[in-house]
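Researcher: Please translate sequence to structure tokens.
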Amino acid sequence: MISASALNKVFGSGDTQVQALRDVSLQIAENEFVAIMGSSGSGKSTLMNILGCLDTPSSGSYQLAGADVSQLDDAALSAMRNQHIGFIFQSFHLLPRLSAAENVALPLRYTATPAEQALQRAETLLQQVGLGHRMHHKPAEMSGGQRQRVAIARALINNPKVIFADEPTGNLDSKTSVEIMQLLTELHRQGNTVVMVTHEDDIAAYAQRVIRMRDGQILEDSGCSV
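Model: Translation complete:
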């Protein structure tokens, strides 16, 4: 599913230059559940952004589902994200004026899917994540855990090849965090590939493979020898 080779990412130039990734190579197979861990500045978020087609590497190659995406322009990256990737963010990224169903259906606005069909699919997904009774509520009318469930449903709307979760429990209490991680675990059991960034060991324990980063490099990978 994911194949990255010798990824480097440099920000700035001259005296302000920072190398966020240093020759990072990894493979992630279809239907793996992988956690990427590391302290602030370790490169884990930079790696997530490149794997999620939110950014491109300074050098190196990256293939997602067999397509070389390392050199795509912004428009092509956007198309790749919309077609193949689902995102779950720490801060939810829901539009406050839209209902839960409208937020979930939002990615389908950029496709040929009719609006009514998009809303029907959104409502079905909200039922699946346990929010059938809240689908017409707006984000401000929901708890943090409910908003994250909306975000998970939205991540699934395009039948993505891989789900990227960036600190998905970062703004949640411990009880709600467990509920969200149980939901992600169930999605993995259903066949989804999940790549998650977290700094919490108890959250990473839900994954079947843990990659630890430091200073822009992979320090440890429980799935293979580094």
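Researcher: Any highlights?
Model: The domain at 2-221 is CATH 3.40.50.300 (Rossmann fold).
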